[in-house]
């Protein structure tokens, strides 16, 4: 296949490093047309839907896109802000704060940028821009704490597809997961305890993770196990017993069996059992989005109250919480090890001399 044209080489520039914070994606606007465009890209990914291509094409284009786009757009409108999609806004802020925090910790030359697996800014465009800026080292940091073939692996697919057409490929490091990372668990603990201190504590903590078809677990996807490990470690950090929390899975789609127990059904059962108050948290989402703000904080709340529940408290995602930005920095630093992102004045001067010598040599050769 032909390779894309390389950007002109800039003699005299210092090698640079970057972190790409990758989230799932969002429509550009809460309109049926924009949602349809987003859903088409998202649901056309074979990592997301493992159904024979022709059969799924018919279902997607003849049933889902014509009828679901308008309904989804209406849901997006209930959470849309003046700044735009909450997921995109939070991810942008996280990237900016992460770059600032890394600079404060001495990594002054590390750029942090945001990309979306589906929608904009696309991974392809972001990686092309970094290439144009002669970035030679890139850490790919998905916003998914738990690994799944439906999410993390899809990011790798897009990264490798992009670089299949690039001649001068930079050094890449891929963050597979951080579901049990001490800094991630500590950030969750800090947020839960802060919420409890301000609002009191419920009778049960429900930890809801995004669902996947049960078939993926049976075929070897570790997501289910990583979700449970996250929940167990958070419960230990909070000093909770096994009967004080429960793990559930949300966003079921279609008729196939998905990971259980289902979130909506579980909260209804808890209400019928007489639990007066539940606290809900979504540890698998690092930014609030449609699935947390509309599905969990609106739809599931209604399910709980309709079944007789009295108090439903939603604990927001980590978003830009200081403990989470610190945690992101610690996770990122582990994947920057060995790269010259922190230089002493002597090392920086030596590096600049090397670049100057290289530029002079290139000039002599007529480059």
From TrEMBL:
UniProt subcellular location: Cytoplasm
Annotated pathway: Porphyrin-containing compound metabolism; protoheme biosynthesis; protoheme from protoporphyrin-IX: step 1/1
Pfam annotation, one family: Ferrochelatase
Gene3D superfamilies cross-referenced by the UniProt entry: 3.40.50.1400
Chain residues that bind Fe(2+): 210, 291
Reactions catalysed according to its record: Fe-coproporphyrin III + 2 H(+) = coproporphyrin III + Fe(2+); heme b + 2 H(+) = protoporphyrin IX + Fe(2+)
Enzyme Commission number: 4.98.1.1
Enzyme superclass (EC): lyase
Listed GO MF terms: lyase activity
Origin superkingdom: Bacteria
Record bears the keyword Nucleotide-binding: no
NCBIfam families in UniProt: hemH
Protein name stated in the entry: Ferrochelatase
Protein's organism: Massilia hydrophila
Classification lineage: Bacteria, Pseudomonadati, Pseudomonadota, Betaproteobacteria, Burkholderiales
């Amino acid at each position: 296949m032909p390779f894309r044209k390389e950007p002109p080489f800039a003699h005299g520039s210092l090698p640079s490093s970057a972190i790409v914070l990758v989230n799932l994606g969002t429509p550009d606007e809460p309109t049926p047309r924009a949602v349809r465009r987003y859903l088409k890209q998202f649901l056309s990914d074979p990592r997301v839907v493992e159904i024979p291509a022709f059969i799924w094409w018919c279902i997607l284009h003849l049933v889902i896109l014509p009828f679901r786009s308008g309904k989804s757009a209406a849901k997006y409108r209930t959470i849309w802000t003046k700044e735009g999609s909450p997921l995109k806004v939070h991810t942008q802020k996280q990237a900016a704060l992460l770059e600032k925090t890394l600079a404060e910790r001495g990594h002054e030359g590390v750029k942090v940028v945001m990309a979306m697996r589906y929608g904009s800014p696309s991974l392809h465009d972001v990686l092309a821009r970094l290439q144009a800026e002669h970035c030679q080292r890139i850490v790919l940091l998905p916003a998914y704490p738990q690994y799944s073939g439906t999410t993390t692996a899809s990011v790798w697919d897009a990264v490798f597809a992009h670089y299949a057409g690039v001649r001068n490929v930079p050094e890449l490091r891929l963050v597979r997961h951080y579901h049990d990372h001490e800094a991630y668990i500590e950030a969750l603990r800090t947020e839960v305890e802060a919420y409890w201190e301000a609002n009191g504590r419920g009778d049960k903590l429900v930890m809801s993770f995004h669902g996947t078809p049960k078939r993926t677990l049976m075929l070897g996807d570790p997501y289910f196990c990583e979700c449970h490990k996250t929940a167990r470690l958070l419960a230990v950090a909070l000093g909770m017993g096994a009967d004080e929390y429960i793990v559930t899975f949300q966003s079921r789609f279609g008729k196939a069996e998905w990971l259980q127990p289902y979130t909506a059904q579980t909260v209804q059962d808890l209400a019928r059992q007489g639990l007066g108050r539940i606290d809900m948290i979504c540890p698998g989402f690092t930014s609030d989005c449609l699935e947390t703000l509309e599905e969990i904080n609106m739809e599931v709340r209604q399910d709980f109250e309709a079944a007789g529940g009295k108090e439903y408290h939603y604990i927001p995602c980590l978003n830009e919480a200081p403990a989470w930005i610190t945690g992101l920095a610690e996770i990122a630093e582990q994947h920057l090890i060995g790269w010259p992102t922190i230089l002493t004045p002597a090392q920086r001067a030596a590096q600049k001399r090397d670049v100057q010598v290289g530029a002079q040599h290139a000039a002599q050769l007529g480059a």
